[in-house]
Design brief:
- With 287 residues, this protein is of the alpha/beta class.
- It is 37% helix and 21% strand.
- It has helices at residues 15-25, 41-55, 96-106, 120-128, 130-133, 154-158, 160-167, 178-181, 191-195, 201-215, 223-228, 272-283; strands at residues 2-8, 29-36, 62-64, 111-115, 138-142, 173-176, 185-187, 219-221, 237-239, 244-249, 252-257, 264-270.
- The strands form 3 sheets. It has an 8-stranded mixed beta sheet with strand order 3-2-1-4-5-6-12-9, with helices on both faces. A two-stranded antiparallel sheet has the order 7-8.
- Strand 1 (2-8), helix 1 (15-25) and strand 2 (29-36) form a beta-alpha-beta unit.
- Helix 4 (120-128) crosses helix 7 (160-167).
- The longest helix is centred in the first third of the chain and has 15 residues, at 41-55.
- The chain is globular and about 45 Å long.
- The chain starts with a strand and ends with a helix.
- Bound molecules: calcium ion.
Length: 287
Protein backbone atom coordinates (compact mmCIF):
# COMPACT_ATOMS: atom_id res chain seq x y z
CA UNK A 1 0.00 0.00 0.00
CA UNK A 2 1.22 3.50 -0.83
CA UNK A 3 0.62 6.70 1.14
CA UNK A 4 -0.58 9.61 -0.97
CA UNK A 5 -1.26 13.34 -0.78
CA UNK A 6 -3.68 14.53 -3.46
CA UNK A 7 -3.28 18.13 -4.67
CA UNK A 8 -6.30 18.96 -6.80
CA UNK A 9 -8.29 21.66 -8.59
CA UNK A 10 -11.50 19.65 -8.25
CA UNK A 11 -14.75 21.34 -9.19
CA UNK A 12 -14.01 22.30 -12.79
CA UNK A 13 -13.02 19.45 -15.10
CA UNK A 14 -14.85 16.50 -13.60
CA UNK A 15 -11.97 14.02 -13.61
CA UNK A 16 -10.56 15.28 -10.29
CA UNK A 17 -13.52 14.01 -8.28
CA UNK A 18 -13.05 10.59 -9.84
CA UNK A 19 -9.37 10.72 -8.83
CA UNK A 20 -10.46 11.54 -5.26
CA UNK A 21 -12.96 8.67 -5.15
CA UNK A 22 -10.43 6.32 -6.75
CA UNK A 23 -7.79 7.21 -4.16
CA UNK A 24 -10.18 6.72 -1.22
CA UNK A 25 -11.69 3.44 -2.44
CA UNK A 26 -8.47 1.85 -3.70
CA UNK A 27 -7.25 -0.71 -1.14
CA UNK A 28 -3.68 -0.10 -2.37
CA UNK A 29 -3.80 3.62 -1.49
CA UNK A 30 -3.72 5.28 1.93
CA UNK A 31 -4.93 8.84 1.27
CA UNK A 32 -3.17 10.97 3.91
CA UNK A 33 -4.22 14.51 2.96
CA UNK A 34 -5.95 16.58 0.30
CA UNK A 35 -4.87 20.07 -0.77
CA UNK A 36 -6.61 22.36 -3.23
CA UNK A 37 -5.22 24.70 -5.85
CA UNK A 38 -6.40 27.45 -8.23
CA UNK A 39 -9.18 30.00 -7.99
CA UNK A 40 -11.55 29.63 -5.03
CA UNK A 41 -9.49 27.06 -3.13
CA UNK A 42 -11.74 27.23 -0.02
CA UNK A 43 -14.76 26.24 -2.11
CA UNK A 44 -12.76 23.42 -3.68
CA UNK A 45 -11.84 22.24 -0.15
CA UNK A 46 -15.50 22.37 0.88
CA UNK A 47 -16.39 20.24 -2.14
CA UNK A 48 -13.65 17.75 -1.25
CA UNK A 49 -14.93 17.55 2.34
CA UNK A 50 -18.47 16.91 1.12
CA UNK A 51 -17.29 14.10 -1.17
CA UNK A 52 -15.11 12.56 1.55
CA UNK A 53 -18.19 12.55 3.81
CA UNK A 54 -20.10 10.69 1.11
CA UNK A 55 -17.16 8.33 0.60
CA UNK A 56 -17.40 7.47 4.30
CA UNK A 57 -14.05 8.90 5.45
CA UNK A 58 -13.93 11.70 7.98
CA UNK A 59 -10.35 11.86 9.17
CA UNK A 60 -8.40 13.07 6.13
CA UNK A 61 -6.99 16.61 6.63
CA UNK A 62 -7.72 19.14 3.90
CA UNK A 63 -5.92 22.45 3.35
CA UNK A 64 -6.67 25.15 0.80
CA UNK A 65 -3.88 26.54 -1.35
CA UNK A 66 -3.41 30.25 -2.00
CA UNK A 67 -6.50 31.41 -3.92
CA UNK A 68 -6.32 32.91 -7.37
CA UNK A 69 -4.12 32.22 -10.33
CA UNK A 70 -7.00 31.49 -12.65
CA UNK A 71 -6.03 32.30 -16.22
CA UNK A 72 -9.35 31.62 -17.89
CA UNK A 73 -12.85 30.67 -16.84
CA UNK A 74 -13.34 26.94 -17.08
CA UNK A 75 -16.54 24.97 -17.13
CA UNK A 76 -17.64 24.01 -13.64
CA UNK A 77 -19.06 20.73 -12.47
CA UNK A 78 -18.77 20.92 -8.67
CA UNK A 79 -21.20 23.85 -8.33
CA UNK A 80 -24.13 21.43 -8.71
CA UNK A 81 -23.08 19.63 -5.49
CA UNK A 82 -21.59 22.44 -3.34
CA UNK A 83 -22.53 26.08 -4.10
CA UNK A 84 -19.64 28.36 -5.11
CA UNK A 85 -18.36 30.42 -2.18
CA UNK A 86 -19.06 27.72 0.40
CA UNK A 87 -16.44 27.64 3.17
CA UNK A 88 -16.33 24.50 5.33
CA UNK A 89 -14.90 25.24 8.81
CA UNK A 90 -13.21 21.83 8.81
CA UNK A 91 -10.75 23.14 6.21
CA UNK A 92 -7.31 23.47 7.84
CA UNK A 93 -5.77 26.82 8.74
CA UNK A 94 -2.36 25.49 7.67
CA UNK A 95 -1.39 26.37 4.11
CA UNK A 96 -1.44 23.61 1.51
CA UNK A 97 2.38 23.43 1.44
CA UNK A 98 2.52 23.36 5.26
CA UNK A 99 0.08 20.47 5.42
CA UNK A 100 2.03 18.61 2.73
CA UNK A 101 5.30 19.14 4.63
CA UNK A 102 3.84 18.05 7.96
CA UNK A 103 2.32 14.88 6.49
CA UNK A 104 5.51 13.95 4.62
CA UNK A 105 7.72 14.61 7.65
CA UNK A 106 5.62 12.58 10.09
CA UNK A 107 4.39 9.68 7.94
CA UNK A 108 5.72 6.25 8.91
CA UNK A 109 6.67 5.52 5.29
CA UNK A 110 7.68 7.69 2.29
CA UNK A 111 4.67 9.45 0.81
CA UNK A 112 3.69 10.02 -2.82
CA UNK A 113 2.50 13.50 -3.83
CA UNK A 114 0.05 13.67 -6.73
CA UNK A 115 -0.54 17.03 -8.43
CA UNK A 116 -3.65 16.88 -10.61
CA UNK A 117 -4.09 20.63 -11.03
CA UNK A 118 -1.59 23.45 -11.57
CA UNK A 119 1.62 22.74 -9.63
CA UNK A 120 1.49 25.97 -7.60
CA UNK A 121 1.31 24.35 -4.14
CA UNK A 122 3.88 21.69 -4.94
CA UNK A 123 6.30 24.33 -6.22
CA UNK A 124 6.04 26.18 -2.90
CA UNK A 125 6.88 22.94 -1.11
CA UNK A 126 9.84 22.28 -3.43
CA UNK A 127 11.17 25.82 -2.99
CA UNK A 128 10.64 26.21 0.75
CA UNK A 129 11.05 22.67 2.12
CA UNK A 130 13.59 20.84 -0.09
CA UNK A 131 14.64 18.63 2.82
CA UNK A 132 11.07 17.41 3.14
CA UNK A 133 10.76 16.78 -0.60
CA UNK A 134 13.81 14.51 -0.36
CA UNK A 135 11.73 12.23 1.87
CA UNK A 136 9.02 11.70 -0.73
CA UNK A 137 8.54 8.33 -2.40
CA UNK A 138 7.90 10.31 -5.57
CA UNK A 139 5.65 12.81 -7.30
CA UNK A 140 3.04 12.01 -9.93
CA UNK A 141 1.80 14.87 -12.06
CA UNK A 142 -0.98 15.23 -14.59
CA UNK A 143 -0.04 17.82 -17.14
CA UNK A 144 1.95 18.95 -20.11
CA UNK A 145 2.05 17.72 -23.64
CA UNK A 146 4.90 15.67 -24.99
CA UNK A 147 5.98 16.26 -28.56
CA UNK A 148 4.96 16.38 -31.33
CA UNK A 149 1.89 18.23 -30.04
CA UNK A 150 2.70 21.42 -28.20
CA UNK A 151 -0.41 23.55 -27.66
CA UNK A 152 -1.34 24.80 -24.20
CA UNK A 153 -2.33 22.23 -21.60
CA UNK A 154 -4.34 23.59 -18.66
CA UNK A 155 -2.35 22.37 -15.62
CA UNK A 156 1.18 23.08 -16.80
CA UNK A 157 0.05 26.09 -18.87
CA UNK A 158 -1.57 27.84 -15.89
CA UNK A 159 1.71 27.96 -13.94
CA UNK A 160 4.51 26.69 -16.19
CA UNK A 161 7.33 27.86 -13.91
CA UNK A 162 5.82 25.90 -11.01
CA UNK A 163 5.34 22.78 -13.14
CA UNK A 164 8.91 22.88 -14.43
CA UNK A 165 10.31 23.42 -10.93
CA UNK A 166 8.45 20.36 -9.64
CA UNK A 167 9.40 18.28 -12.70
CA UNK A 168 13.07 19.13 -12.14
CA UNK A 169 12.98 18.80 -8.34
CA UNK A 170 15.40 15.90 -8.44
CA UNK A 171 13.54 12.88 -7.13
CA UNK A 172 11.22 10.48 -8.90
CA UNK A 173 8.66 12.53 -10.88
CA UNK A 174 6.25 10.60 -13.11
CA UNK A 175 4.11 12.59 -15.54
CA UNK A 176 0.89 11.43 -17.14
CA UNK A 177 0.76 13.99 -19.92
CA UNK A 178 -2.26 15.12 -21.91
CA UNK A 179 -1.52 13.02 -24.97
CA UNK A 180 -1.62 9.75 -22.99
CA UNK A 181 -4.18 10.48 -20.27
CA UNK A 182 -6.79 12.02 -22.59
CA UNK A 183 -7.32 8.52 -23.97
CA UNK A 184 -8.83 7.42 -20.62
CA UNK A 185 -12.53 8.16 -20.89
CA UNK A 186 -15.92 7.88 -19.28
CA UNK A 187 -18.98 8.04 -21.51
CA UNK A 188 -22.62 8.91 -21.01
CA UNK A 189 -23.51 5.22 -20.95
CA UNK A 190 -21.27 4.83 -17.87
CA UNK A 191 -23.61 7.08 -15.83
CA UNK A 192 -25.83 4.28 -14.41
CA UNK A 193 -22.79 2.41 -13.11
CA UNK A 194 -21.22 5.57 -11.64
CA UNK A 195 -24.50 6.39 -9.89
CA UNK A 196 -24.38 3.03 -8.07
CA UNK A 197 -21.06 3.84 -6.36
CA UNK A 198 -21.87 3.53 -2.63
CA UNK A 199 -22.47 6.86 -0.88
CA UNK A 200 -20.87 9.11 -3.46
CA UNK A 201 -22.52 7.79 -6.63
CA UNK A 202 -25.26 10.41 -6.89
CA UNK A 203 -22.79 13.29 -6.59
CA UNK A 204 -20.30 11.76 -9.03
CA UNK A 205 -22.99 10.97 -11.60
CA UNK A 206 -24.62 14.39 -11.25
CA UNK A 207 -21.30 16.17 -11.76
CA UNK A 208 -20.37 13.91 -14.68
CA UNK A 209 -23.72 14.40 -16.40
CA UNK A 210 -23.54 18.17 -15.82
CA UNK A 211 -20.10 18.22 -17.36
CA UNK A 212 -21.25 16.25 -20.42
CA UNK A 213 -24.17 18.64 -20.88
CA UNK A 214 -22.12 21.84 -20.48
CA UNK A 215 -19.48 20.55 -22.87
CA UNK A 216 -22.22 19.30 -25.23
CA UNK A 217 -20.69 15.87 -25.71
CA UNK A 218 -21.14 12.31 -24.47
CA UNK A 219 -17.65 11.55 -23.16
CA UNK A 220 -14.89 13.13 -21.13
CA UNK A 221 -11.29 12.25 -20.38
CA UNK A 222 -10.20 10.87 -17.02
CA UNK A 223 -6.77 12.50 -17.14
CA UNK A 224 -6.30 12.74 -13.37
CA UNK A 225 -7.17 9.25 -12.09
CA UNK A 226 -5.23 7.76 -15.00
CA UNK A 227 -2.11 9.75 -14.09
CA UNK A 228 -2.60 8.80 -10.43
CA UNK A 229 -2.09 5.10 -11.21
CA UNK A 230 1.58 5.83 -11.99
CA UNK A 231 2.16 6.04 -8.23
CA UNK A 232 1.15 2.36 -7.99
CA UNK A 233 2.77 0.63 -10.96
CA UNK A 234 2.70 0.47 -14.76
CA UNK A 235 -0.35 -1.80 -15.09
CA UNK A 236 -2.42 0.88 -16.84
CA UNK A 237 0.06 3.53 -17.97
CA UNK A 238 3.59 2.69 -19.03
CA UNK A 239 6.63 4.97 -18.78
CA UNK A 240 9.20 5.89 -21.38
CA UNK A 241 12.51 4.97 -19.67
CA UNK A 242 14.28 8.05 -21.07
CA UNK A 243 15.29 10.50 -18.29
CA UNK A 244 13.77 13.89 -19.12
CA UNK A 245 13.93 17.51 -18.04
CA UNK A 246 11.34 20.27 -18.27
CA UNK A 247 12.03 23.74 -19.67
CA UNK A 248 9.77 26.77 -19.91
CA UNK A 249 9.64 27.93 -23.52
CA UNK A 250 7.29 30.69 -24.71
CA UNK A 251 5.28 30.38 -21.51
CA UNK A 252 4.83 26.62 -21.89
CA UNK A 253 6.55 23.58 -20.43
CA UNK A 254 8.56 21.66 -23.00
CA UNK A 255 10.11 18.29 -22.28
CA UNK A 256 13.54 17.24 -23.54
CA UNK A 257 15.92 14.38 -22.76
CA UNK A 258 17.63 15.12 -19.46
CA UNK A 259 20.73 13.99 -17.63
CA UNK A 260 21.15 10.35 -16.70
CA UNK A 261 20.43 11.13 -13.03
CA UNK A 262 17.11 12.88 -13.75
CA UNK A 263 14.15 11.20 -12.09
CA UNK A 264 11.62 12.70 -14.51
CA UNK A 265 9.81 10.14 -16.67
CA UNK A 266 6.85 10.58 -19.01
CA UNK A 267 4.06 8.12 -19.65
CA UNK A 268 4.12 6.80 -23.21
CA UNK A 269 1.06 4.52 -23.45
CA UNK A 270 -2.18 3.56 -21.72
CA UNK A 271 -4.34 0.43 -21.67
CA UNK A 272 -7.65 2.28 -21.96
CA UNK A 273 -10.02 -0.68 -21.59
CA UNK A 274 -8.23 -2.04 -18.51
CA UNK A 275 -8.11 1.41 -16.90
CA UNK A 276 -11.81 2.03 -17.59
CA UNK A 277 -12.74 -1.16 -15.73
CA UNK A 278 -10.23 -0.40 -12.96
CA UNK A 279 -11.68 3.07 -12.34
CA UNK A 280 -15.31 1.97 -12.20
CA UNK A 281 -14.48 -1.20 -10.28
CA UNK A 282 -12.63 0.70 -7.56
CA UNK A 283 -15.16 3.50 -7.04
CA UNK A 284 -18.03 1.03 -6.70
CA UNK A 285 -16.31 -0.83 -3.87
CA UNK A 286 -18.19 -0.73 -0.53
CA UNK A 287 -17.62 2.31 1.68
CA1 LIG B 1 -7.45 18.50 -12.34
Amino acid sequence: MISLILDTDLGDDVDDVFALAYAVRNPRINLCAVTTVLGDTRWRAALALRLLDELGVADIPIAAGTPGGEVNTVTLSGDVVVPPGTDDPRCETRSAAELMADVIATAPQPVWLATIGPATNAAVLVAERPEVVEGLAGIVMMGGRHEPAFPREHNFGTNPEAAAAVCNSGGTVLVGDYVVTCQARLRRDDLPRVRQAPGVGDSLATMLETYFNRRERDWTSMYDPAALTLALDETFLTLDPTPMRADVFNGQVRFAPGSAVSGLRLADAIDTDAFHEELLGVIERPA
